[in-house]
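call fold(seq) -> tokens
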Amino acid sequence: MPDRPGSYRNSIAGWAWVELNSPPPEDVLLVLKSVGTGEERTFAAWRNPRPDVAAVFESEALLFSGFRAYLNVEPGNYQVTVVQQGADYFTSGCAGNVTLPH
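ret:
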């Protein structure tokens, strides 16, 4: 994909964790797979506070369960997978599909 201004105009935000009463792993990635072509792209996400999630699940450990990633992909329909990893674990789960606008 050619570089061009504004190509990071899309982002995805959400929340994820591994264990209810443990802080979420710092390393979180989003894998977008094009529904049309099958091409996969991986994007690093960063953690952010989600006090609403911590309150609903009654776990202060989940305060930083939120994440956001900027995306550099063409408009289209993508399957989104959230990956969390650490020194001794790896989790991966499909979060559904998203359509990115033109």
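The CA atoms of residues 9 and 41 lie 16 Å apart.
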